[in-house]
Design brief:
2 domains; 12 strands; CoA transferase; transferase; single chain; CoA-Trfase_III_dom3_sf; elongated; about 40% helix; Rossmann fold
Length: about 400
């Protein structure tokens, strides 16, 4: 393994690996953060003005010196702020590549080659490098130059037309769904490529694109369409999924909403006092009478409280659950039991509570060793590790090739 550098982190699954994160926005930085959570030494190589996400605050949550968007996607990283448009800046990056295990970028197609940091160029420096390139639509092809933006990819993926009412505008997910699944896909790709390298000593190029990530996420739905030949047809009632029988969705109650998932119609009819359900066959009438069943269920559920129905459904063995807001989620006893959220102290942003880790390890647990860095916070430290002496580092700082945080 290359990258046998000093690691100040608590040992983790990826301790001893060095990752160069040259990505921006969400998908790339989120993937790199997951690697850092597992102990990798992630160096965020960003422009001297700071990565784009530093200047774009989701929800207007600007923070003190680091906005919440950047804070949420860049923990467990060190920041090297360097001008890659300069030859001296590119020399620094090439020197870093020699000690790296993973290089991750999501430049627009063609940019990496212009900067001299494409796979073939970096492979010549470090043959066993795992090089990850993330794009919107693919490395080449008719859409290669299109902007890879989450909402646009959601619309193109077909997913928006798998829920809601016929005739109404399709609704996007309430999350940056495509960015998130692309990040997870890139994270998986890195781990698989590193495992291959451990077995064979061979590095490789890993390409991930947002269009394929959100398309393959719909493995079951698209197979129903392509193999089963069933059309993606929305109906008049707001079903939550076009390929699941009724009733399936969110329903208004007397004091809120609950989610209800394809209950046995006879059992549901008995509980609601809806005689029309009693002789229905789940896998027949649940499809042929979708809107009728959904509408009747809605009428009944509006008459009592959410808790009344949740208790009644639980007693009857019917799958139902609450519809939370974020405040409810934070207080949920299972969330608290799981330790889903973590709280830590950030040097500029104070005490912060954020989602933690989606996995657990009995021997090498993930943890937060450092919060998101200021732009160039670790410039001197990283350059020192490359063997540059103080006068050379001072010269680079004075010339503006690199910067450090104030």
């Amino acid at each position: 393994m290359t990258g046998q550098h000093e690691d100040h982190h608590r040992p983790g699954v990826l301790t001893g690996y060095r990752v160069l994160d040259c990505s921006i926005a969400m998908a790339g930085p989120f993937a790199a953060q997951r690697l850092g959570d597992l102990g990798a030494d992630v160096i965020k190589v960003e422009p001297v003005s700071g990565e784009w996400q530093r200047h774009s605050a989701a929800g207007g949550a600007t923070g003190n010196r680091i906005n919440v968007s950047f804070l949420s996607l860049n923990r467990n990283k060190r920041s090297l702020a360097v001008d890659l448009k300069s030859e001296a800046g590119r020399d620094i990056l090439r020197t870093l590549v020699a000690s790296a295990d993973v290089f991750l970028q999501n430049y627009r197609p063609g940019v990496a080659a212009r900067l001299g940091v494409d796979y073939e160029s970096l492979r010549a420096i470090n043959p066993d490098l795992v090089y990850v390139s993330i794009s919107g639509y693919g490395e080449d092809g008719p859409y290669a130059q299109r902007p890879g933006q989450d909402l646009l990819l959601q619309g193109m993926s077909g997913a928006m037309l798998s829920s809601g009412r016929a005739g109404e505008a399709p609704r996007a997910a309430g999350q940056y769904l495509v960015d998130a699944v692309t990040a997870s896909t890139a994270f998986e790709g890195v781990l698989a490529a590193l495992l291959h390298r451990e077995r064979t000593g061979e590095g490789q190029l890993v390409t991930v694109n947002m269009l394929d990530a959100i398309t393959t996420l719909q493995m079951q739905e698209l197979s129903v369409f392509t193999v089963g030949g069933l059309q993606q047809a929305r109906s008049e009632q707001p079903h939550a999924h076009v390929y699941i029988r009724s009733p399936y969705g969110t329903f208004k109650t007397a004091d809120g909403y609950i989610a209800l998932a394809f209950p046995p119609l006879k059992t549901l009819g008995e509980l609601l006092g809806e005689d029309s359900f009693l002789d229905m066959i789940d896998e027949e009438h649940g499809w042929t009478h979708r809107d009728e069943i959904f509408a009747a269920t809605s009428r009944h559920l509006e008459t009592r409280s959410s808790q009344h129905w949740l208790d009644a459904f639980a007693a009857a063995g019917i799958w139902a659950g609450p519809v939370y807001g974020y405040a409810d989620l934070l207080e949920d006893p299972q969330i608290r039991h799981n330790g889903t959220f973590v709280t830590y102290d950030h040097p500029t942003e104070g005490t912060v509570t954020v989602p933690g880790f989606p996995y657990k390890f009995s021997v090498t647990p993930p943890r937060i060793d450092r919060g998101a860095p200021l732009a160039g916070q670790h410039t001197r430290e990283v350059l020192g590790e490359l063997g540059l002496d103080v006068p050379v580092i001072e010269g680079l700082l004075e010339s503006g090739v690199v910067v450090e945080s104030a």
